[in-house]
Amino acid sequence: MKVDKPSAPIRVMLVDDHCERAQLVEDGLLSAGFEVISVITSAAGLLFQIEQHRPDVVIIDLQSPDRDVLESLAIVNQHNPTAMVMFGQEDDPDYIRHAVSAGISTYLTDGINPTRVRPIIEVAMAQFRSFQGLREELDTARAQLQSRSLVEKAKSLLMKQKNLNENEAHQLLTKLAMDNNQRLGDVAHTVVTTLSAFETRK
Amino acid sequence: MPASSRLAPPEIDNISVGYMRLTDAAPLILAKEAGLFKRYGLDVTLCREVSWANLRDKLVVGLLDAAQLLAPLPMTTALGAGGMRGQLLSGLALGLNGNAITLSNRLWHSFSDEGKSRLTPLARAQQLKALLKETAEPITLATVHAFSMHTFLLRLWLQAGGIDIDKDIHLIVLPPEQMCDSLARGVIDGFCVGEPWSTVAVEQGIGSVVASGYEIWNNAPEKVLGVTQQWHDAHPATHLRLRLAIMEACQLLQSADQRKAIAMTMSQAEYLNLPSRYILPSLTGSYRYTKGGDAVSVPDFHVFWKYQAGFPWRSQAQWILTQTSKMLGKDICAEQAQSLIQQCWRPDLYREAARLLDAPCPSRDYKPENTHEHEWLMDNSIELGADKLIQSTEG
Fold first, then answer.
1. DSSP assignment, residue B218?
2. Which positions in chain B touch A47 (Cβ < 8 Å)?
3. In this structure, how many other beta carbons lie within 10 angstroms of the beta carbon of residue B260?
4. What confidence tens digit (pLDDT) does each residue in A164-187 have?
5. Do A75 and B172 touch (CB under 8 A)?
6. What is the ipTM of this complex?
7. Are B62 and A97 in contact (CB < 8 Å)?
8. Are B97 and B213 in contact (CB under 8 A)?
9. Taking the model in full, what pTM does it have?
10. Listed residue (B73, B132, B89, B71) closest to B107, CA to CA
């Protein structure tokens, strides 16, 4: 096993087809002082890329179909110095479990000390989680926006077809929601569907 | 179904089972769709995964309760070869055969007309050897995982033709979904892969099949149902119910109608997400080797129940382990091999389930290979299939 020179930064390669997430992880790694030598979105040409860049560590999205490709390097290329072993010899089940749950998988070269790589995986894990958080926030925001515009549409249809003013239309929707024990957005959706069908028939 | 009084209640009833986008996931999908899991008191979520590494890792860390695995994976995972280490075991094989070797149009067209239409897989391998000698340029072939029956079958076929794999073949791994595209773009010259991917290549006109897996090793092991040792110890009753439900699905898959129906189901977006015309040929055994060619009858392209298809033979585990140690380039001593096989391949668990289904079942753990050209009876009662391997040119 070769000894790592403390001065040489660990060379990381990132394989991730989510551009935004790859960006997040790259930023995190850079600010933590690691060298990110290459970020590739799809593993088309992965073998070539690895041959060319000779990374110390490859971080890859767990959901990537190319993980089998990466592992084959460890097995088939016995003579190649970039043999890779997931998490090195450190079989810490809890740690691995957390990494897998966060959605990342890491491959190290044989010569790299697993404890030196741990911080890299930790940064990547944190960034994967924060990306997950961002995406959930975005989904919630989108759903709220959609529900708000549905309510507006439902109100205007009610005002037009039932001769109500805006306040009365809003009250009607709220009452329907409470009576049916449904969310305002869901009621608005039903109202829009029913009334638009009515409108096209007219 | 055995009377429920004979079965212990499941320790857990809500479980996740992983599978890959392959035709031989049929038993799992049928068990779900036909309500067999439910009849055994299990609420099973089927999780489609994108790589064998993913299936193995999620299984090892407990994100999945059970998974469809390549037959070599339980033992290679115990060895920690190529990835995560873990104790996996299987008490049920998920079927025999199911693969095919496909070559690019360029290679196919350089075969003689005879080679295309009438010759055996062996003769085609020999033609490929002649071609390689002529051009003196290595070709690139792909399989889906380093430790897979695909790799072992491909090597058997090449060796049978007298091809020097180290010198003439560049062997790489690619995900099944990328096979056809890579073949079309000329990145690879051929592949060995599970169905439906060879049929997809043939139907899209980008390659031709030169050998079905059956023709290379009659009734070879293929996939198994894997769980961790720890999970099995904690949930033996759930594991038994899971195996029983899948075995009943395998029994149902003996019927041609059932196979046609499951092809339709599997074509849905949530499963294989491919037109059923790609899934049907290998399931019905009316298989096309080349676009526009006549369909050839390969009735045992997939075997799910007959010939004791679900039985995890320790003799086959031994064969797989020998191939694995050759590939790893390291010897596995006899005691270690013995303990790995005992740990990972559990015919006792198969017998436990078969008894409950009143299904006949071998009393031995080992069987001969490369001996029988036709169906045969073991101990005058157990019907087994042919077990010939493609004969090497050197004899």
1. T
2. 172
3. 14
4. 888 888 888 888 888 888 888 888
5. no
6. 0.83
7. yes
8. yes
9. 0.84
10. B132
